[in-house]
Amino acid sequence: MDRSAILLVAMFFANIRHNPVVDAAFKGMRPAVVALIVAPLMGIVKGMAWWGMAVVVAVGLMVWYFSISPVLFLIAAAAAGVIYVFLTSRRAKSDLQ
């Protein structure tokens, strides 16, 4: 169902994308979209350590400058999280014995 809805929207948009009114509307929406992305990030940043912010900025720059897919960073972060939890839980178990 989701794929068909996306296909219908894409087909409709293909017919009107060269319309100056539609183009102007999408250009007007850009600042709102940026605000919707930045607002939750500001809440996350408030509780973040300086090194966490440095990692976020570094990843953002690598995605932008080197055109590296953000999906690769998500996979690497998930793997690092799994390894971290595995190692810390293993260390905690050995400390209890």
Draw up the topology in text.
Layout (H helix, E strand, L loop, with lengths): L1 H15 L3 H27 L3 H17 L3 H27 L1
Describe the structure.
This protein has 97 residues and is mostly helical. The chain has four helices and no strands. It has helices at residues 2-16, 20-46, 50-66, 70-96. The longest helix has 27 residues, at 20-46. The radius of gyration is 21 Å and the shape is elongated. The model has no long low-confidence stretch (mean pLDDT 85).
Number of helix segments? 4
Instruction: Report the mean per-residue pLDDT as an integer.
Output: 85
Sheet bearing the most strands, described?
Answer: none
- Low-confidence parts: none
What is the general shape?
Answer: elongated
- Estimate the strand proportion: under 5%
In whole angstroms, the N-to-C terminal distance is 53 Å
Question: What class, by secondary structure content?
Answer: mainly alpha
Q: How many β-strand runs?
A: 0
Radius of gyration: 21 Å
H and E string: HHHH
As a percent range, the share of helical residues equals over 70%
Salient structural properties:
0% strand, 89% helix, 97 residues, 4 helices, elongated, mainly alpha
What is this structure, in a nutshell?
The chain is mainly alpha-helical and 97 residues long.
